[in-house]
Amino acid sequence: MLIHPDRLFPAEPAARDVARRLYEGIKDLPIISPHGHTDPRWYAENEPFLDPATLFVIPDHYIFRMLYSQGVRLEDLGIPTKDGGAVEKDPRAIWRRFAAHYHLFRGTPTRTWLDHTFATLFGFTERLSADNADAYYNRIDEALRMPEFRPRALFERFRIEAIATTESPLDPLKHHQTIRQSGWGGRVVTAYRPDPVVDPDFDGFRENLERFGEITGCDTSTWSGYLEAHRKRRAFFREYGATSTDHGHPTARTADLSRADAEALFRRVSTGDAGPGDAELFRAQMLTEMAAMSVEDGMVMQIHPGSFRNHNQQIYSRFGRDMGADIPSQTDYVGALKPLLDRFGNERNLSVILFTLDETSYSRELAPLAGHYPILKLGPAWWFFDAPEGMRRFRELTTETAGFYNTVGFNDDTRAYLSIPARHDVARRVDCAYLANLVTTHRLDEDEAHELAYDLAYRLAKEAYKL
Amino acid sequence: MLIHPDRLFPAEPAARDVARRLYEGIKDLPIISPHGHTDPRWYAENEPFLDPATLFVIPDHYIFRMLYSQGVRLEDLGIPTKDGGAVEKDPRAIWRRFAAHYHLFRGTPTRTWLDHTFATLFGFTERLSADNADAYYNRIDEALRMPEFRPRALFERFRIEAIATTESPLDPLKHHQTIRQSGWGGRVVTAYRPDPVVDPDFDGFRENLERFGEITGCDTSTWSGYLEAHRKRRAFFREYGATSTDHGHPTARTADLSRADAEALFRRVSTGDAGPGDAELFRAQMLTEMAAMSVEDGMVMQIHPGSFRNHNQQIYSRFGRDMGADIPSQTDYVGALKPLLDRFGNERNLSVILFTLDETSYSRELAPLAGHYPILKLGPAWWFFDAPEGMRRFRELTTETAGFYNTVGFNDDTRAYLSIPARHDVARRVDCAYLANLVTTHRLDEDEAHELAYDLAYRLAKEAYKL
Amino acid sequence: MLIHPDRLFPAEPAARDVARRLYEGIKDLPIISPHGHTDPRWYAENEPFLDPATLFVIPDHYIFRMLYSQGVRLEDLGIPTKDGGAVEKDPRAIWRRFAAHYHLFRGTPTRTWLDHTFATLFGFTERLSADNADAYYNRIDEALRMPEFRPRALFERFRIEAIATTESPLDPLKHHQTIRQSGWGGRVVTAYRPDPVVDPDFDGFRENLERFGEITGCDTSTWSGYLEAHRKRRAFFREYGATSTDHGHPTARTADLSRADAEALFRRVSTGDAGPGDAELFRAQMLTEMAAMSVEDGMVMQIHPGSFRNHNQQIYSRFGRDMGADIPSQTDYVGALKPLLDRFGNERNLSVILFTLDETSYSRELAPLAGHYPILKLGPAWWFFDAPEGMRRFRELTTETAGFYNTVGFNDDTRAYLSIPARHDVARRVDCAYLANLVTTHRLDEDEAHELAYDLAYRLAKEAYKL
């Protein structure tokens, strides 16, 4: 049996029984996926996925980083190079390499997600290995050509009530337009991720500003025109369902400069005249500006700070971004957020969802902040920590200070479409296990645990993201 | 049933049985409360508490910060503003608001403490909710008018053997005088918390220095007079039972300046001529000076560093201090304490109890320091971490390096008088659960666990604080 | 019974059963001890150990630091002072003092190791205490005079397949020569720890450089001669079995200077002309130089950063190094290692094993780095964290991101020879317990757990260290 019905529940029988009862009540709830990186083209064009390697291995940096760490070359996994140099083209060869290294994922969430997908979508009962690699390949490859494996059919099978993708302000949202015009009923919304026009260190920042002006018809060479461009583009995104913005800065730093200082800073970063610290200060100021706009237009802000992107210089030069070489670093929130909080911390029409890759901040900073400021909520365990132990630590380190109701349920944050049900299932099971432990140690009544299980699996995400 | 007899014990039956046996042996031990913030006026005047809202909600920042984080205005909870602006005056309306939001405390220690108090003091068996808010209010309100709910009667009912309050050197200790003169047998002692005359950033620091001089008859405009004032005032506090001092600095930094440098620094901070860093350096120097005095007079030093006080500027301006907006921040000990340790780390007549709001320091810094320096001991899990998971982490992260005997048992650190038995009960249960796990995994013999349960519940606090 | 057959296994019966089965399969595997500090003289000369106090107490800073922290003077434990001042000379008196304080070790790994040693080597069944101190002393003292308690006999009894000691480049390795020439079959290898000639802050650094030149016949007054000396000395160490180097720097900082800058820096630190930051920069540069040599000669690099050595100034002055006063401090890896990784991170013939004393880096930095870079692997829980809870945290915080196969099994890192079987046994039990929990919560199949138990107990260490 590839997946066990009691997986991730406590081993102790009394707690396991409670977990089973809680899970039974929520396992079939629809999926709210308020933050993620699936490709809207899938839903727009509804074309079949190509083959097992192209679906599972080549786009998934969780998978290929692990193989790379154990000596497998990225070229041998079909990862395209920037200069178009030769890489493996045979999907079956790639799949075999992946299968031969499947033991590397023991104890990782990748393994849990894959097994869940293999079992529930393709009916496998035997663990993937070098021996059965071809059998796996053949069955998946065949399935992908069937209509029920097209993106929209899967969307319905997954019981997705709403899913958000993430786009840059420079994106024309044409896939979202196609979805709308298609008459298909799936709810796919966009989210506003302005990093390319907000982060002076972003590749092509100055050209991006220019294009931003063209797209919006605003004079993005001036501070006021630039801000106006954001306002217009946020409104355009809202036409395509956007209820949130997202900000992936290296730090959580915010600033609240005078108008004159902000204008001067914008002039420097937009004309290539930036001094040391200007890029960081501009990003910081823009978080506060985005908050100001959210107070006006009601969009929920998400802050995803603290990733040192593209840490491996050679891999970045050869393969580009998102190659599994983004490494978390220490992240301060208490000092960093103060300028934004001083201005907007007590607003009633603002919601800021904080994420972290520095787990030390859970109990020391994030839970105390969210347990006080009305605008702050905590996003779920993110990225490397979106895994059973990571989720358990998140609850153990935040609940006693911030409670459950300053958190926002789960989001899968994934570009791996087929893993979405597995990821939500893991989150639901881990939360049921956590609640079961509270019940069995008499810290919570079981009727409350049922209500909480529902809230954590469904209601909180829906409400926090206004979906 | 509002509280279960096995609450907080391990779910696994064998470990639960051990925990029950350990707890049985120590549950009725007297309470030693060596550090806290109850109001000595209560014991001095022994007046009845006013009403449920004034007793439970208005003074408790654990409670109102959580409601505030979820959109309830502080004014609607009766929290007085600095300018005397209108706030809710009806205690029943406040209580109803609190009851309607009681679910927010699920999974928090506040809930555990309140349920324990509601069940053991007022006989409730049903969880507080909007539906039974009035029934709760009526029963509590009635009880508070009965003689057995007056402070001294509760003191005896709670089996408090000794309790420390915390006072500023500027406090005349008149309530403590009244207690002494009253002939009542309850042991209430003060503790010396010199922040208002030691921290140049404290509101009214320079006026405080002046008053400090008047009260002590010392010339607090000179360094030597200022130090002499401390010596005299510490002696005065000892007359009212003080065995400890307490220091709530933003950091744990210490310094050991030459006399000339210290004098010059004092001159700058006391005349308003301080440069950047001077306030921090002065606080640092004063920790070392306080240690020097403790070597002479035997008072135990407590250091409670690392809270960013009054983080919410708007709330501070409108409502003042202690409004639930104090946020922990990163705290270094290894470098910060070195000047003090270089001078006094190997003394035989000095005891310094370290607390932290930065749990990362438990295993990295505090346990290794306490497991070596004779003067250092570790205070219990503090503030946000005074909760079952926080306490478990404290033991798991410190015991393997520092052992049990470099810790000092529990202190409740509370201003919520009625919660004292609940807090000590949680600590006793969590320690019994921790010990039971050691016994059940054969890391400790059960006879040792019984001895340790007694030590952690009673003996260590009594001895560490010389009570 | 002093040690229980189920010690350290989960209390929950189903998980305990799995743990028992896993442990049964690996408990008798030979010991690979790839990193440690035992004295090669023991294996060379094979003389009996002197007496219980000289064997267990006087050389073990885990033991005497704990007694010191509770007020026992180091002099009274026979710790020699630098100036030869009077200390306790009677081993029985020392042993009695130790026995009388044995309760201090409750809950610590020292206790676990000692009980294991007392039970398995000397047949004790009763816990050490003041009462049986003499009986313990007598039986151990007697045993030490028997041939089966000589170092080589114990080596065989412990089933040590290979053990590494750690030597400075200035060490003539004569004990290793003696071992080789003796015809004894025990595999004892050295490891290259160049701190004394790499760290400008090391006592006698400039004299060390001179001796380094004499020993190697290289001109260590020049940068190129100095590097050549390292190359020659590494080759010499390899003749005595060395497969690894080890680096105990205050931080993990690396640098990759131009040749000219490196030369100038070497000139400054080697002539006593170093400016602030030069020592740190030189250590940083030397990590990268050592990596370059490892690419050539295949030696595995170990980095053990983050200890603030000799924190207690008075103890250091009176007793010297390694007196239990080394305190961990915050350690950054993400920025610190980047220069080395930029140059060598993607090499195929380089292996760098990272250790930490800052557990916050496990999930935030070390697991993500090791889960990507081919050259990086994670060493086991180190020093203060080489204990059941520390090991559990290591697995829980690293496995979900780095998997098991980017770790290197266990190493005991000890100078306490008799504790070696106990330490490996603890590691094996804790890993079996961790795996059993994964199996019982259906995150791992039991056949995989058996394979992993073998890998973690034996194979990974052997392969990672090329032993």
From TrEMBL, chains A, B, C:
One of its GO terms (molecular function) is glucuronate isomerase activity. Keywords: Isomerase. SUPFAM superfamilies: Metallo-dependent hydrolases. The keyword Isomerase applies. It catalyses: D-glucuronate = D-fructuronate; aldehydo-D-galacturonate = keto-D-tagaturonate. InterPro entries: Metal_Hydrolase, Uronate_isomerase. Pathway: Carbohydrate metabolism; pentose and glucuronate interconversion. The keyword Isomerase applies. It comes from the Bacteria. GO terms for biological process: D-galacturonate catabolic process; D-glucuronate catabolic process. Its EC number is 5.3.1.12. PANTHER family: URONATE ISOMERASE. Belongs to the metallo-dependent hydrolases superfamily. Uronate isomerase family. This is Uronate isomerase.
